[in-house]
Amino acid sequence: MNDYEFDSALMLSGRYFDKIVILLDEVARPIHYPAPPELHQSLTQMVKGIFGDTGDLLLFSEPGINYTIVDLVEKRLIDIRIGLNRYDFQPPAGPERIFLVGLPSAESDQALIHCIIAHEFGHKVWDESDVLIRLQLSASVKPFMYLDKEEEQVAAVEVATEWLLELASDLFGLYIFGPAYVCAAIHYATAVTALDEASKSHPPTRVRLHLLFGLMDEMYTKSMNEQGGREFAYGPNMSQLFDMWRPAVDASRLGIAQMSSNVDERYARTAFAAIRNPDRVKELRSMARGLAQERYGAYYKQENYVRDMGLVRSIRNFIPPVQFLNEGKSELTSVPGILNACWEYYLGGLEQFGSVLPATISSDRFALSAIFNEFVLKTLELSGLAGQWREANGS
Ligand SMILES: [Zn+2]
């Protein structure tokens, strides 16, 4: 190493050492709270599906009730890379973007609930300026223009924008995961939020579920019966759950009953009026579908769901539903397919699951639920491995 090279190396370490240490700290910290490793495979596939090969994922669980995504270092990684390039130092190729995904530790072993994470990734895909235009969010349009002062109009637009991005991310999750996403939303969101509470960042959960049901029921309508009612494609157990919830999320029940202290009631009411506008709802759906299609390649259609319901029989026989037969040829199940089949089975109660296990295994609900969860995790892992295997074999 000559003087010049020695000098540049010193400069390099001086300039980038602190950045690299911060980076390592952020990456290493989550490892104190590991998440089930089996999930890694399928969630990584999802990240790569949505963000291309430039994305990677680190999974951890943390105390608290929220799913969090720390969109780590896209900028920071690029900064370091550009900085190193300047000194003719070629850093190893690596992801341009790493998501640190935090699962709530109390739920970290509940594999069926983790499709909620699609919502969080949804937040990362919207281009906000595009959203403002497409959803007509500006102070000069209805209902914002009815507020007296311009600053109030602007504040209400801000609340409505946050809310609509929440709703768009919900619909994105539904387009990717189908009814399994709504099952997870019911189980997770209703346990941790008040149904009619509005905050600056989130519309009431009831409104969110109303929108999810509206789109889901439309997507999964099989036919209309003679009385003009809908016949749905849902499996019997999901059907029962949705029938129970439909009256609770009916349009007539929507409103804002409680206000979180961080939002002014007038702004919340204006935002509520804005998100109830049918044109915006239509645009919201088309935005979410477009993105699911563009980023994920496809959305989860009724025909996929109907086909995947056939997997419930495998689960009943304790066979991980990793593949199915299509005209005599075996095909791999998708992650949404696994989750929908597993939800359908799970909602039927786990007694039947207990009956296929050896008699030495305790049959109390918690033991069965833990074993079923391991079964789901293993299935997700196997499906990830099988996918990689096929890819490597070029088929
Ligand atoms: Zn959100």
How would you describe the overall organization of this protein?
The relative contact order is 0.10. The protein contains 16 helices and nine strands. It is mostly helical and 395 residues long. The protein has a three-stranded mixed beta sheet, sandwiched between helices. The chain has helices spanning 3-28, 38-51, 74-86, 117-123, 128-134, 150-177, 179-192, 205-219, 236-245, 265-275, 278-296, 302-309, 312-316, 335-347, 351-355, 365-392; strands spanning 55-62, 68-72, 97-104, 197-198, 221-224, 230-232, 258-259, 323-326, 329-332. A hairpin with a 2-residue loop joins strand 8 (323-326) and strand 9. The mean pLDDT is 83. It folds into three domains: 1-108, no CATH class; 111-300, no CATH class; 302-386, no CATH class. Helix 2 packs across helix 11 (278-296) and helix 9 (236-245) crosses helix 14. It is 56% helix and 10% strand. Zinc ion (ZN) is lined by residues 119, 123, 166, 169. Zinc ion binds next to helix 4 and helix 6.
